[in-house]
TrEMBL record, chain A:
Protein name: Vacuolar protein-sorting-associated protein 33 homolog
Family (UniProt): Belongs to the STXBP/unc-18/SEC1 family.
Automatic annotation (TrEMBL), chain B:
Species annotation: Brassica oleracea var. oleracea
Domain of life: Eukaryota
One GO MF term: actin binding
Name of protein: Protein VACUOLELESS1
Gene Ontology cellular component list: CORVET complex; HOPS complex; lysosomal membrane; multivesicular body; plant-type vacuole membrane
UniProt entry keywords in alphabetical sequence: Membrane, Vacuole
Cited InterPro entries: VPS16, Vps16_C, Vps16_C_sf, Vps16_N, WD40_repeat_dom_sf
Main location: membrane
Bilayer topology: Peripheral membrane protein
Pfam families in UniProt: Vps16_C, Vps16_N
Classification lineage: Eukaryota, Viridiplantae, Streptophyta, Embryophyta, Tracheophyta
Record GO biological process: endosomal transport; intracellular protein transport; negative regulation of embryonic development; pollen tube growth; vacuole fusion, non-autophagic; vesicle fusion with vacuole
């Protein structure tokens, strides 16, 4: 099943970036002759599957394995490790090799670091006395396009590394990735950054431009006009709230991973109980449809899940309505052709089309019909998924949690919240859920029996969260009230079906992060400087020099600029520490508003939600 | 006509004209080539001269010590040094492609000099056999050399960069039994052979052998095609040998032989066909033999230089002084004591213009300019005559100008070209410009002070890049810089080399002053590597200057390693941190870690946040004991405590350790130690208590496991322990754990209700509910029953819920819509609640109806 995202309509040529990565990987692997065993670290294999088909890899004569402590079982004499430069992997690799040596198995070992070699990792290989046995190379994969407008740097641990361990490697990585983008699309002239990490990234980016300049003559006029960098730390409230968009909810409950969700097959209406199946979201190439493509000479590759594209950013309440509407129209279409359907019920789909043709329909009508038929699987798929989601959303506990989040965000009556959280602990609800609320509680207000319920090993989590400033032991005055009021984060009476404000994604709460982006684009940050000072970390607004004078104006006000030459300007919004689907939806909403003259590209260290973010803070003990 | 004088100097060899313009009057004084060994580099390179110690020469007013002198092609002295090497006579001396002077003495030692007559260390030897047997002859090519020993063995260095000598196969007849001496040697360069390895041609007796590393094969040549058909193939080889002299053509395809009976024979190496066979008047072998480009072969005896072509009578030139032939790709330079000449075939374009009586378009164009200058109307007439082939004429003039050494004539030809160009519509106009540019460069390097007499063809083959590198090697930096600028090439190479040379040469200039001088020039070139210059400064023993220079390096990846190598660890750490590249910071950390004692290392990184954090991250993964030392030495006791706690945890996780003896002893000890350490700081009382409780819990769990004989307690949480107890119906144990850890009543109620629901002990649950009024209300009971899907049980407790909203919701959850609605109606905000119930109940129904028609399709 295709997992590679469709990038046809991207405002930037992201496809070229992906193709470059593909080529680099294939060339690296082709360098080693003969059959070989490719051992990928599991997280990385997800990222790699977004840029290259597994079948393509297999064509290169590869056996695929996931890296773990266990020795690699293979007949191949060449073992290629494709790993991110993480210290813990080195021990695995070293132990594999030592294991082979003890069994007198002779193999060639290759370690390909993603995105680059690391002194610390190689040091470990050295100390384990295997460094001279391996060939070390690098696969410079700094980013993976997830969607037409979303790029991920695949740094899931970025937030924890920076805040808890003080390991800011990810900042360099982010700057490097942006610099790579600049090599393709030109030096971005305007930079706005908020948060310690963001300002640092802007600084490193400037250094890189000095050290390894993008030749402005080669690239021409920059395609990206503005770069907005935001630390997750600036807005920890938003990810802790439950996302209420369709895609956001899917992620909250079913965990979208690499563009697909995994559900029990009974959810999708299959008869086989208890079997897990993967449901892709962004792209869908179904066998039945492909056969029809061949039959009618349509282009296979343009198949995108249009229905999902339409609904993903909507508030889930609305999605249900939309699905109902669509289904009803379709049902009517169905009745129209019901006679045909009855007639050839037993025929496979291909012959069905043929049969319809026999019944004297014109070809164009036929194609229309097939197109509708094509949307049928999508229709059923999303109805199944939506229904599955409602089983969660209709639960009392879910509703009261939303209530609680709302109360916390509005920063009213803490006692209820505290009691509620306490009860969750008593019930031993999942720890991440509790911590999410606790963090929310701590940020919006001021900061147990936690360890008793969940075990003492979690003392580290608390310690980590405290180091990251997410939990605070002492009473201290929160700025949340002021921030909330000034930036109008609580929007009363939002009509989720006809939204006028980004607040629809959280049914009434406008994500702080996106408000900041909105401000940055529309009027710059100067008017809200006071508020910015209340949020963690410094901020920065600069213009970078060294371009042939570009006609851009100071701010991206209205339609006056960018469209002058018929081209919309592009704003790159980078989230350091992760972004949620709901926030992405909110940004898309901003860009889609009438009279807006810019496209948004969102780049993030990782797509997150409250739970996954908190999980990164949980040290895996032992 | 004015052109006559030009062609008058040409000589005709069969149907081809040759010319031999004088390029320089040699500037040197008292150099007699016949007294000296001389090595001349091709491509107009330098000339090395040293008194020949194999000849008896009379010493005039000079030292008995021999001097190696290096001149440029115009005879300007570049450098000199006294030669006092041991190892016997100098056997061979030649310039390599990168203009290193390679000289080999009798015992096989190789001394290398640069163009500044500085000895390049280390000296290399050709090997033990050469040392023992003595080298008698050597043949060089651009990048290698073959030596012949007295014992008749051949040794070869095929790459001057690696300088690795190896032995070639033995040649039959040269072995010790026969004691034959080869009459001559020649080399086919690796780039022209099939195998890619060097091939040595050795003439022994009547045979010629091709020798490489593996074998020696004798070669035979075919008879010349045509009349001499009575001769047998086999005999012909014998007729050629013994060969007295041989050379390989510049492209490696032909071999010229001078036979015992005074014949010059040229044969194809692959085809074995004979192309030229000319009998000379004397059988005395020539002193020198050389190819003139690919056109003809030159043979030199005292005072007589003879040029043989494929057809026709040879041309003779006479000299009253000794000469040296320097083969080039397109001709031969002839060096004498007084002058340097360049013998080449007259290029076609030049011939078409200057040949006597030529009426070619180019000749007419050149003539037209002459008329035009003299304001004669004939100019127009000429132009009209050649209108149709004007562009061809312009092209010829440009080409001819390029081949000219004489600046006046270059100018005349270029003027003719641009004159013609004005009347020609379809000519590429930048050709004139391009040639002008090339000629300016050529004229500049041909200046006697520089002394590189390149022809345009040589220049194109050499490439401007190599020319620049030769100029900077000769320390003509300014000219190299100008040329780079003029040709739009990267100036970095030149400036970099200059800077390094400047540092070497300015040993006595103070650092600050020298830095100023260097920076002044280094700033000319953006992106230049200051680190490379600094490295050089460091190698020259000027560490302080290096540190000052590296400060200016913008690329931290180059700057940091260098700072480390010059011992500037602090600065390296600062720079690495500033760069944001954590990999560089690690590089510095490991460097210091390795070099300094631990305490010093700790002190160094303690103050540097990023370095410290990275070290901790690394050590956490790989060097935990060392990390403990670090935390202890820096007073971070609580961090040590965390480590101990984690250690105790790891011990439990490790399946290897859990076999055998009960581990709770050491684990508990670690936890207690951790708790102790935590308690030393005020801020960690929470952790201290937690660790203490953890230890206590573990102890209790072990006791429980022992008493129940079930290994299911260790490492579960307090809640889970209590739950397990209840599930095992061990209420006493549960109560004990509860009291030990002061579990609150509320928590106890939630815990116990759910635990009882898990084992479906509804009776006990009901009993529990009646023990006293639950501090949590009846919600835990309701939820536990609903979760277990026991409506009947739930109904026992729902009515007891005091909150009406809660009650309504509970009814709704077990599907009792009416009761739910009733409860909702009683509640205050009943309307909203009712609405929500309606929604939940209806929504599922909607999906079901929607799904129906599609089921068969997907």
């Amino acid at each position: 099943m295709a997992q590679i995202p469709n990038l046809e309509n991207a405002p930037l040529n992201l496809k070229s970036i992906r193709e470059k990565s593909q080529r680099e990987l294939v060339n690296l692997l082709k360098d080693i002759r003969g059959t070989k065993c490719l051992v990928i670290d599991p997280k990385l294999s997800g990222s790699v599957s977004l840029i290259i088909q597994t079948s393509t890899l297999k064509e290169l004569g590869l056996e695929l394995r996931h890296l773990s402590e266990e020795p690699v079982q293979t007949e191949c004499t060449k073992v290629v490790y494709l790993v991110r430069s993480q210290l813990s992997f080195m021990k695995h690799i070293a132990s594999h090799i030592q294991n082979d040596i003890s069994k007198a198995i002779q193999r060639d070992y290759y370690v390909y670091f993603v995105p680059r070699r690391s002194v610390a990792c190689e040091k470990i290989l050295e100390q384990e006395k295997v460094h001279n046995l391996v060939t070390v190379k690098e696969f410079p994969l700094y980013m993976v396009p997830l969607d037409e407008d979303v790029i991920s740097f695949e740094l899931e641990l970025s937030e924890k590394d920076c805040l808890v361990d003080g390991d800011v490697s990810s900042l360099w990585h982010v700057a490097k990735a942006i610099h790579e983008l600049e090599f393709s699309f030109g030096v971005i002239p305007k930079v706005r950054a908020k948060g310690k990490g963001s300002v640092r990234v802007a600084d490193i980016l400037n250094r890189m431009q000095v050290e390894e300049p993008v030749n402005t003559n080669d690239v021409g006029r920059p395609e990206v006009d503005t770069l907005i960098l935001l630390d997750r730390e600036v807005d920890m409230v938003t990810p802790m709230c439950t996302q209420l968009t369709y895609e956001g909810l899917l992620n909250e409950f079913l965990h979208i991973s690499n563009g697909a969700v995994e559900v029990d097959s009974s959810v999708m209406g299959s008869q086989q109980e208890g079997k897990k199946m993967k449901v892709p979201l962004n792209s869908s190439i179904f066998d039945a449809w492909n056969r029809n493509c061949d039959f009618l000479g349509l282009d296979k590759h343009t198949v995108v899940d249009k229905l999902f594209k339409e609904t993903r950013d909507l508030n889930f309440e609305v999605v249900v309505q939309v699905l109902r509407q669509k289904a009803t129209t379709m049902k009517e279409d169905y009745t129209e052709i019901n006679s045909v359907r009855l007639f050839c019920r037993s025929l496979p789909l291909g012959s069905l089309v043929f049969a319809v043709e026999v019944m004297t329909q014109t070809v164009s009508e036929l194609k229309d019909f097939v197109k509708k038929l094509n949307s049928l699987p999508e229709m059923t798929r999303h109805i199944h998924l939506a229904q599955h989601l409602t089983t969660f959303t209709s639960k009392q506990s879910f509703l009261s949690q939303l209530d609680m989040e709302q109360t916390l965000v509005e920063a009213e009556s803490y006692d209820i919240c505290f009691e509620y959280i306490e009860e969750l602990i008593h019930k031993q609800e999942p720890l991440t859920k509790v911590l999410r609320l606790l963090v929310l509680f701590s940020i919006t207000n001021s900061g147990t029996e936690l360890l008793h319920s969940y075990g003492f090993e979690h003392v580290n989590v608390l310690n980590n969260l405290e180091k990251a400033g997410l939990l605070k032991k002492q009473e201290f005055k929160s700025n949340w009230q002021t921030v909330k009021r000034t930036l109008k984060l609580i929007v009363e009476d939002t009509d989720t079906s006809r939204p006028v404000d980004i607040a629809y994604v959280y049914s009434g709460y406008a994500p702080l992060s996106i408000r900041l982006v909105q401000q940055a684009i529309h009027s710059g940050w100067r008017p809200i400087e006071d508020i910015l000072k209340l949020l963690p970390g410094p901020h920065l607004e600069t213009k970078r020099s060294g371009f042939p004078s570009s006609p851009s104006v100071d701010s991206l006000h209205g339609a006056s600029n960018g469209v002058a030459d018929g081209r919309r300007s592009v704003v790159l919004v980078v989230f350091i520490g992760g972004v949620t689907f709901a926030e992405i939806s909110a940004l898309r909403f901003l860009a889609s508003k009438e009279g807006v003259a810019y496209d948004l590209i969102i780049a993030t260290t990782k797509i997150i939600n409250g739970a996954t973010l908190i999980e990164t803070f949980m040290d895996k003990q032992g | 006509m004015a052109n006559v004088s030009v062609a008058a100097e040409w000589q005709l060899l069969y149907n081809r004209y040759y010319r031999k313009p004088e390029i320089y009057q040699m500037r040197w004084k008292h150099v007699d080539l016949s007294r000296n060994k001389v090595a001349c580099a091709s491509f107009g390179g330098p000339i090395a001269v040293i008194r020949d110690d194999s000849k008896i020469v009379q010493l005039y007013a000079e030292s008995a010590l021999r001097k190696l002198r290096i001149f440029n092609s115009a005879g300007v002295l570049l450098s000199e040094t006294v030669w006092k090497h041991p190892g016997g006579r100098l056997i061979g001396m030649s310039w390599s492609d990168d203009q290193t002077l390679i000289s080999i003495v009798q015992d096989g030692t190789i001394y290398r000099y640069n163009i500044h007559a500085e000895l390049i260390q280390p000296n290399v030897t050709m090997g033990k056999e050469c040392f023992e047997q003595n080298v008698v002859e050597c043949v060089f090519w651009g990048n290698g050399v073959v030596c012949l020993t007295e014992g008749g063995q051949l040794f070869c260095i095929s790459d001057f960069k690696t300088m690795k000598p190896y032995k070639l196969a033995d040649v039959p007849g040269l072995t010790e039994d026969d004691m034959l001496q080869p009459t001559c040697l020649a080399v086919r360069e690796p780039q022209y052979t099939m195998s890619g390895n060097v091939e040595v041609l050795v003439a022994v007796g009547h045979e010629i052998y091709v020798v490489d590393e593996d074998e020696a094969q004798s070669i035979r040549f075919d008879e010349p095609s045509g009349e001499d058909s009575e001769m047998q193939n086999d005999d012909y080889g014998n007729l050629i040998g013994p060969v007295q002299k041989m050379i390989v053509s510049p492209n490696g395809k032909f071999l010229t032989l001078f036979t015992h009976d005074g014949r010059v024979v040229v044969v194809g190496m692959e085809s074995k066909q004979i192309a030229i066979d000319y009998s000379c008047e004397s059988a005395l072998p020539p002193q020198q033999m050389a190819w003139c480009g690919m056109d003809s072969v030159l043979l030199y005896w005292d005072e007589d230089l003879m040029m043989v072509g494929p057809l026709g009578d040879p041309v003779h030139y006479f000299y009253d002084e000794p000469v040296i032939l320097i083969p080039e790709c397109d001709g031969v330079r002839i060096l004498s004591n007084t002058s340097l000449e360049f013998l080449q075939r007259v290029p076609d374009s030049t011939e078409s213009i200057f040949k006597i009586g030529s009426t070619s378009p180019a000749a007419l164009l050149y003539d037209a300019l002459d008329h035009f200058d003299r304001r004669s109307a004939k100019a127009d007439e000429n132009l009209r005559l050649i209108r149709s082939s004007l562009s061809e004429a312009v092209e010829s003039c440009i080409d001819a100008a390029g081949h000219e050494f004489d600046v006046t004539r270059q100018r005349a030809l270029l003027r003719a070209a641009s004159y013609g160009q004005a009347f020609s519509s379809n000519f590429q106009r930048d050709r004139v410009q391009e040639t002008c540019r090339t000629l300016r460069v050529l004229n500049a390097v041909r200046d006697p002070d520089i002394g590189i007499p390149l022809s345009i063809q040589q220049y194109k083959l050499l490439t401007p890049v190599v020319l620049i590198s030769r100029l900077i090697n000769a320390h003509s930096h300014l000219l190299a810089l100008r040329i780079s600028e003029y040709l739009g090439m990267n100036k970095e190479v030149v400036i970099m080399h200059w800077a390094c040379a400047k540092i070497t040469a300015s040993a006595s200039t103070p650092d600050a002053h020298l830095l100023e001088i260097l920076l002044d020039k280094l700033q000319l070139c953006k992106g230049i590597s200051y680190a490379a210059v600094a490295t050089h400064a460091d190698n020259c023993g000027r560490r302080k200057l290096a540190a000052m220079l590296v400060e200016h390096e913008p690329r931290s990846t180059k700057q940091v390693p260098l700072l480390l190598s010059i011992g500037e660890e602090d600065t390296a750490l600062v720079k690495a941190t500033e760069s944001g590249d954590t990999d560089l910071v690690y590089l510095v950390i490991f460097h210091i870690w390795q070099k300094r004692p631990p305490l010093e290392f700790f002190a160094m990184i303690q103050g540097r946040v990023l370095a410290r954090d990275l070290f901790v991250a690394y050590a956490r993964c790989h060097k935990q004991e060392f990390l403990k030392d670090f935390f202890l030495s820096t007073g971070q006791i609580h961090e040590v405590a965390f480590l101990l706690w984690k250690e105790s945890w790891d011990m439990g996780k490790n399946p290897m350790a859990s076999k055998g003896s009960p581990l709770h002893g050491p684990r508990i000890k670690l936890m207690e130690k951790a708790s102790n350490l935590f308690s030393q700081t005020k801020e960690h009382t929470f952790e201290s208590k937690a660790a203490e409780e953890h230890a206590k819990l573990l102890r209790i769990q072990h006791e429980l496991e022992a008493s129940t004989k079930q290994a299911i307690f260790v490492d579960s949480s307090i809640n889970d322990t209590i739950r397990t107890c209840i599930v095992l119906r061990n209420n006493r144990a549960a109560a004990k754990v509860k009291s030990e850890f002061k579990v609150s009543d509320k928590r106890w109620y939630w815990l116990k209700t759910f635990a009882l629901a898990t084992i479906k002990d509804w009776e006990a649950l009901e009993k529990f509910s009646k023990e006293k009024r639950p501090p949590t209300g009846f919600r835990p009971f309701v939820e536990a029953c609903i979760d277990a899907d026991e409506k009947a049980e739930a109904l026992k407790y729902i009515p007891k819920l005091s909150d009406l909203v809660e009650r309504g919701e509970a009814y709704a959850r077990i599907g009792m819509a009416k009761e739910a609605a009733d409860a909702a109606a009683q509640a205050n905000d009943g309307g909203e609640l009712l609405e929500r119930f309606r929604k939940t109940f209806s929504q599922n129904a909607i999906f079901d109806t929607l799904k129906m028609p599609f089921q068969g399709v997907s």
